[in-house]
Amino acid sequence: MRGSVSNGTKQSSLPSPGSRSRKLNWYLAELVQECRVENYTTSHVWVNTHLIRAGSNREAYEKAQKIGKAYNSTYKNDAGGKVTWRFRGLRELLPILASIEDGAELAFESHTRLTPKGVRAMVKAKAQLAAFRDA
Fold first, then answer.
1. How distant, in Å, are the alpha carbons of 50, 64, 105 from that of 5?
2. From CA 36, how far away is CA 42, in angstroms rounded?
3. Confidence of residue 108 (pLDDT cuts 50, 70, 90)
């Protein structure tokens, strides 16, 4: 389960659309991108997480859609097969309610009824973390 994060302060309501001092909020958008290769029956899928700043949930959604559609492309691979990347939609759009700063919590997941083995399985060794895999 995923959720937005709050720093415990109440967010002020947004000014009217015509206001010049519109408050911008941060969102995490999880975009689903599908890669299809000609003559293959399965797809490769990426879930890309983007940081979006917007004045409303609707604006954040529209920005995420625009970013996702920019991934759409078709080309030939080295073997001459047609490769098609398509934006399939959003997996999630999470408002970030905390201030963006070093160490800020941007999102969370909640897992219930895990055994000790299940908890240990969630944790990776340093060498398995993406930041260190190709280092």
1. 16, 19, 7
2. 7
3. confident
